[in-house]
Amino acid sequence: xxxxxxxxxxxxxxxxxxxxxxxxxxxxxxxxxxxxxxxxxxxxxxxxxxxxxxxxxxxxxxxxxxxxxxxxxxxxxxxxxxxxxxxxxxxxxxxxxxxxxxxxxxxxxxxxxxxxxxxxxxxxxxxxxxxxxxxxxxxxxxxxxxxxxxxxxxxxxxxxxxxxxxxxxxxxxxxxxxxxxxxxxxxxxxxxxxxxxxxxxxxxxxxxxxxxxxxxxxxxxxxxxxxxxxxxxxxxxxxxxxxxxxxxxxxxxxxxxxxxxxxxxxxxxxx
Length: 271
Known about the structure:
Metallo-beta-lactamase, Chain A; eight-stranded mixed sheet; seven-stranded mixed sheet; 7 helices; 19% helix; globular
């Protein structure tokens, strides 16, 4: 398995240009923040950040934004309150990077005043947009989950969205686990996508019910660090992703992250 992944990665490797600007068009950049999530998206001339990683990894997010020439974000999405997704919020709020809007799912297990986004913006003049299934953002993001509040597992309150650039669709899943996955399947399932952000660091407790073949995705992206969360990515899940025709890329195989173009032809850059 590891040899197969290594060969696949090597076939796609090309370094970012020294100018720090890899592509002129729409793209997704998954930052290597270890076991955590931080995804930079440039689409239709707008810039977004989905999750911020852990606090001690946020410098890597800032470095990536700087290399990409991004000083302003049209939106920051927090998929759920776990620290490996929300830990960098306070540093981002104080970083000097301008954020136009902040988004989070309307369902969460914390009390509102303890919500990490509420706490991070306590001294800032900023409003939070609480998203529900059926909402859309800037004509690019469509929210499909969560459908209800899960009181027992914050992962199952993860914001699940489809990014549609016109050329490509990306399914963004946070740390969605089996309860949220099952509820979305019962409500109609998951839409076709070109790129699948594998939930919850590709642990063994995800994608238990969904038919991965029906996604029709060509690329699967995983953000994890096996030394922080042993067993990720799960070997059996990797086999299923590949059997469904997806080329699998993991941040732990990169130094800085993974760049994915969202144009007619997907290009992968291991940075």
